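Structure in, sequence out. Go:
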């Protein structure tokens, strides 16, 4: 694993090129199914997408949704998890039997671990949390429409709320997908903590996939996520041989006190601007530990807990007087 990119904002950039404008696929409007038991949520999502000139059909329960999906072809389906008669995850599973299923976005109200992990297993494109944000709906649907294929297969090796283990292929698409789902699992964290964890995870995961796995979809990265009362921990293991800090002349971490000296080296090597990934990860993580080969890394973020049992921002230590 070699850390050598510039800082980003907590999640991977869509890997399929420019995102399309909604409502114009060259053969008529994109067709979207919105299935949600809650009428207000259903109307909000449908209205937002119709305003983008999309052709939207709605359903109020899982059986109705599956019937519509079997009768007509849709590009994207937004499925509420807890619908009556048939839940959204069972609809998603049934769609896997179709030759050309739509891209599926799962809508959930509670960020429940089992629902999110099952959505990963059944190859959903995204999880969308309630209460739904109008702009977020437009963005995730645009991303789903931009995908040229169904999401990559991600193996769920352990699926308890406190201990999640995943194995994913070394592709940017898999990285983008897993980042979005892990962000859903951390929905109860304060916004600042969630952003910090997202940035560190982003840097470490993409470096594992790009450098350790060489963007080879046949090679796998192993991700573990442990959640305790006062901390969360990520472990990322890549299939590469590892690295030595002394060899990272193209990264800012190798130039103490000279944060831009590596840019000249990157330019001479023909590398794109960047190289701040390890600096960012080191600064943002409370603990950052590597194994001897340095192809496995653990990072820890400590959490403060309020009297109501919910995480709060960790307080900065007081300055000495």
């Amino acid at each position: 694993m070699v850390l050598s990119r510039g800082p980003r904002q907590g999640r991977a950039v869509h890997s399929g090129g420019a995102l399309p404008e909604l409502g114009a696929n060259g053969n008529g409007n994109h067709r979207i199914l919105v299935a949600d038991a809650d009428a207000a949520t259903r109307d909000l999502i449908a209205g937002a997408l119709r305003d983008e000139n999309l052709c939207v059909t709605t359903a109020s329960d899982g059986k109705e949704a599956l019937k519509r999906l079997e009768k007509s072809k849709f590009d994207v389906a937004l499925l509420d998890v807890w619908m009556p008669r048939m839940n959204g995850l069972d609809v998603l599973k049934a769609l896997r039997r179709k030759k050309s299923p739509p891209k599926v976005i799962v809508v959930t109200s509670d960020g429940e671990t089992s629902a999110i992990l099952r959505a990963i297993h059944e190859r959903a494109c995204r999880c969308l949390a309630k209460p739904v944000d109008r702009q977020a709906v437009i963005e995730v649907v645009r991303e789903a429409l931009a995908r040229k294929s169904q999401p990559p297969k991600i193996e769920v090796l352990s699926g308890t709320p406190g201990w999640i283990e995943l194995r994913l292929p070394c592709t940017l698409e898999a990285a983008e997908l897993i980042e979005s789902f892990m962000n859903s699992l951390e929905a109860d964290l304060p916004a600042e903590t969630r952003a910090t964890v997202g940035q560190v995870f982003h840097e470490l995961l993409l470096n594992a996939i790009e450098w350790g796995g060489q963007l080879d979809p046949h090679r796998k990265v192993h991700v573990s996520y442990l959640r305790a009362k006062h901390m969360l921990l990520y472990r990322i293991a890549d299939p590469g041989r590892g690295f030595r800090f002394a060899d990272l002349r193209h990264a800012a971490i190798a130039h103490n006190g000279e944060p831009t000296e590596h840019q000249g080296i990157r330019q001479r090597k023909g590398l794109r601007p960047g190289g701040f990934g390890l600096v960012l990860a080191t600064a943002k993580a409370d603990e950052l530990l590597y194994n001897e080969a340095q192809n496995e890394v653990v990072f820890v973020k400590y959490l403060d807990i309020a009297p109501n049992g919910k995480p709060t921002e960790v307080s900065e230590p007081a300055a000495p007087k």
